Amino acid sequence: MMPTTEGGADTKANLTHAIDGFSGNEHAVPVAPIYDDIVQLFARTGVTYTPTLVVSFGAALPIYRLLAEERPHEDARAARWHTEGALYQRSSTRQLWFAPEDFSNTEVAQGADAILQAGGNCRTGRARRGPGPVEPLGDEAARRGGYVQPQRPQGSNNHGCRSYRVRLRPREHEVGKLADLVVLSRDPLRDIQATRDVDQVMRGGVLYDGLTLDEVWPTRRSRPVPWKLQKTLTPATAVATIEHAVREAMDSTSTPGVAVAVVHGGEVLMSKGFGTANIETGSAVTTQTMFQSGSVGKQFTAAGVMVLVEDGPHRPR
């Protein structure tokens, strides 16, 4: 047996798990920062330390801040795959608030990096708390804390497999072997947030669209939507539809890159770049990319002028 144990916010139990030879320990040691005695214990026993930074024990849970700031439940993919209803709404709003100094995830990330640098096994872990793509938020919290391992996906996979005594052999290809792949539209080695931008997924030799999970290859086939996931049109589901339409339009017109913003009722629902900004350098379109609009801006300028005309004369007070 190779158990990965629940840390349970109990430092003494965590140390016992390492001493007793358990394969893994889930969740952060609640004492932060940790010092070299714990670092060396975890590194030399070989236990795989999984701090799950979005739920760092021993302090305020960062998941509350991340849900409030990042609002992952409004992500186009989350809107597509979660059912509507009171439970969804209550798990997405009315989050707890804590002062910045109440969080310890930076110190926890630094401790994990120290274990990694001492020759130990570490991985960020995936603690699902609430709807939406929470996993990349954990990677971002790790990056902010200086935890370098999420910047090396190959090392991350190796450490996870090592904890279960499974040998991982990257880039190995064999005749008849089916590979499970995740195709990202941006390089996560340059920006860890790129782990959110899943363009395509392969499972069992079938290639799927990363947003809709429609089959792309070897046979094009739309994925039937179960009745419980069928929704009325809301701003969030509209954003998901727009993102899919943008990708289809880019494919059909061979457009290298675009930036799209969706604003509803004064609230920005989506602000995202797609594709390549510069074909020569391969730089990706982001929300900060500058475009030369040329005469396209004239119609917007004219519309803005007419809005002012309709508002009537404005006299200085």
Describe this structure in words.
- With 317 residues, the chain is of the alpha/beta class.
- Helix content is 35%, strand content 16%.
- The chain contains ten helices and eleven strands.
- It has helices at residues 11-19, 36-45, 62-70, 76-81, 86-92, 105-117, 135-144, 153-163, 235-253, 296-311; strands at residues 4-6, 24-26, 48-50, 121-122, 181-184, 198-203, 206-209, 215-217, 257-264, 267-278, 283-284.
- It has a four-stranded parallel sheet, sandwiched between helices. It has a four-stranded antiparallel sheet with strand order 5-6-7-8, with no helix packed on it.
- Helix 2 packs across helix 6 and helix 6 crosses helix 7.
- The longest helix has 19 residues, at 235-253.
- The termini are far apart.
- 26% of the residues are buried.
- Residues 129-134 and 149-155 have low confidence and may be disordered.
Keywords:
317 residues, alpha/beta, 4-stranded parallel sheet, 4-stranded antiparallel sheet, 10 helices
